[in-house]
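Quick review question:
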């Protein structure tokens, strides 16, 4: 059985911010980059505990790496078998950048 995924309303703002960043910096293939983020989030259907644990029963799913890296913050509620995706940030925004591109 697969877990259900629910996106917080703020996720739309996160995607808008990411797309604006792509536009400002002339990122090639922005659709492909967004698809990679969505594919990674969809993997939570089959593996809801794959992300690393963080505070308050939340988890972080690391997507990609370096300049192409993102972190999705989520909470898995086992009793209702649902993943609540709370935020998506670049790794640099999330404080995980190592300064390399």
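Suggested answer, residue by residue:
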């Amino acid at each position: 059985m697969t877990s259900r995924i629910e996106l917080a309303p703020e996720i739309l703002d996160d995607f808008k911010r990411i797309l604006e960043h792509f536009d400002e910096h002339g990122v090639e293939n922005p659709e492909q980059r967004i698809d990679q983020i969505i594919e990674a989030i969809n993997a939570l259907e089959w593996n809801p505990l794959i992300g690393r644990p963080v505070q308050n029963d939340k988890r972080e799913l690391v997507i990609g790496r370096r300049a192409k890296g993102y972190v999705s913050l989520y909470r898995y509620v086992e009793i209702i078998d649902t993943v609540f995706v709370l935020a998506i940030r670049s790794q640099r925004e999330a404080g995980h950048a190592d300064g390399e591109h």
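Why it works: Confidence is low (pLDDT under 50) at residues 96-101. The chain is about 30% helix and 30% strand.
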